[in-house]
Design a protein that fits this description.
The complex is a heterodimer. Chain A is of the alpha/beta class. Chain A has 19 helices and 15 strands. The longest helix of chain A has 30 residues, at 266-295. Classes of the chains: A alpha/beta, B alpha/beta.
Amino acid sequence: MDLAALREAAHETVTSSQLTTRQVQQRLAQIGESTLPYPKLSADADDAMRTGLVSDLREGSAPYRPRYLLPDYARALAQGSAFLELDAPKDLDDAISFLSILYHHVPSITTYPVYLGDLDVLLEPFVDGVDDDRLHATLTRFWRYLDRTLPDAFTHANLGPHDSRVGRMLLRIDRELAQVVPNLTLKWDPQLSGDGLLDEAVRSIAAVNKPHIANDPMIRADFPPERFPAGYGVVSCYNTLPVGGGSHTLVRLNLAISAARHVGDVDAYLDTTLPDHLALLAEVITARVRFLVEEAGFYDHGFLVDEGLIDPARFTAMAGIFGVAEAVSVLLDGARTGHDAGADALAHRLVERIAAIVADTPIPHCAGERAMLHAQSGISEDVGATAGARLTVGDEPDTISHVLAVAPHHRLFASGISDIFPVEPTAADNHTALADLTRGAFDHGLREITFDVDGCELVRITGYMVRRSDVERSRTAEVRHTSTLLGAEAMDNHQVLERASRVVSAESTPFGVTVRR
Amino acid sequence: MSTSTSDGVTRAAGLEVASTVPVSFVDGPGNRFTVFLQGCNLDCFNCHNAALIGTSRAAAWRSIDDLLDELRPLAGFLRGITVTGGEATLQLDGLIALFTAVRADADLAHLTILVDSNGTLDPAGWHRLAPVMDGAMIDVKAIDDATHRRITGSGNADVLASVRLLHELDRLAELRLLVIEGLTDTPAELAAYAGFVTSVDASTPVRIMAYRHHGVRAKGLHWPETSPATMARVQATLHAHGVRDVRAPTQR
């Protein structure tokens, strides 16, 4: 970008009436970063980036912090922090104060923490002797604090799989407050969790469209304790990553473009074009990881590393794909996934092939020297390519057929997949139906499930939430949540509110230097 | 088992099915597989499934085996099945055959079985059905007999007797009241409705539903759609008259 364009972008940012001061500062930082050259790429990879075949989701040209970072909060609470001059907390108020402080020192691509921890596990040890009224009041204040000071809906808390007072109370409070922050995942295990916790969760879903529910036994198997001793967390929009680690970067391949560029039959696509394009994806991932680790030196210093809250060995990179629906349609003469068994079979074959190639491609500085496959849930500016491996939005069959169409490849997306299941507003009067569908879906191998209950004030854009009323307000005035601006853009680009199923693409993109009009 | 259909032909056990729905939240607790049977013995002006009243070329005779084949892959996602219509109990033999087969099937035995009915089945029919179902949801459209005739074309004595019998048989799942402004929401009608419910069992769930024009024939369109305020008033009135469990749709 030339200097005049940079100046114009900066001027438009500082004079915007729709941004808070902090949002202005964040955009100015991005404009500054954009003046640095991109890590060196081959001509082919550079071309893939320019044409949208491969995209880094506008992470920026000089990565200086990991995209997603999941501190080991349990360790922090147990040992205290010398850097923050905090002793290990001894009671509930101390523990909440400790976390509230620590969150402000946890970077990510959004500048806010994308992971707040498994809050029931973290806080349950402190609630003996705290009665329900006090617990409700204390956790309500905490929940408000999170929404008001971490105003970004990619900020994500986890609960479960064990039933607990804190877990149930947080689900109740989340329902009562109906805030966009934090985004919420319940890790559910039919053996460990019990039906009571699931019932509490689906009651919340029917009211506020969250939590998202993760198939805990299935995901745990992908994060074995010998490699990932602190387990996994679900962060931002459906990104499933090691706790005490995270993901350096997320780069994605647009399969709609990839398939459209192919000349020849399906077999030739899977054997030649697809591997070539995945090699370009790997090249961009590698260049970004090397810059972050070797040049920016993020992991060489800082209290998160020094105090053991993150371990570079538990970081990976995410190899994202999207546009499976369009790729299948191109390769198979217009066949539609979710409606045509042949299309579904090809989608599964395509993902199998991609997973095999990703599993066979070394990436430096990653756990096991491999990236993890991710069905990327889109960003607000996407047009013409369906998020991840989803069925085409607005074209989904009934929930059960939908689950059966997509479940076969869920096992392959170790770092997350984002199918959203639109359901009728009548779920509000029969929330246990959502528990029935969840149990069935997990029995059939679904990795995670998100319902989108039509008619809620909280609207799920992809993984993150916005309030309808905030989106309307954002058109004329400043709003607290950065993510609301993305939601507004997604709604404009995808007519999100007009659709029967309001599910569109807009993942955890940073707000690139292009200023929203 | 064999059964006869409306065209008088005797065939293997089956049902005249208008359609099936694998994901339903409005036909009883949990997620339910709902079977819509073709044909009804009432002719309500407010019917929202008017195409199911008579015969239809869109309906199809389906064997019990065929229905079970459709049901089996869905079973893990379901709390139960509900048969509605039309009027489900007009095909009593097929209904009993279906329910018996579901209970005998290892993959399906966990499903609860409900019938959504207008309550016109005779006592002998309910006695046959009771052992193979978990409950019936009965549309009691009005307590005032004249009002009931105005809506349905017939009186309600059979319907009210069915409700009492199902309660005695422990098969009364819920009552359903369609609220039509100026017709079923009058103070006298609501008092009578509550009086009937409490005379049976005050804790019987009563689900109130708002009248909507969707799917209704021209003769029903001059009655207004029911407002949220009316729904709230009806719920409160039934409560005040002693009905303990009045279920109204969530307003958003």
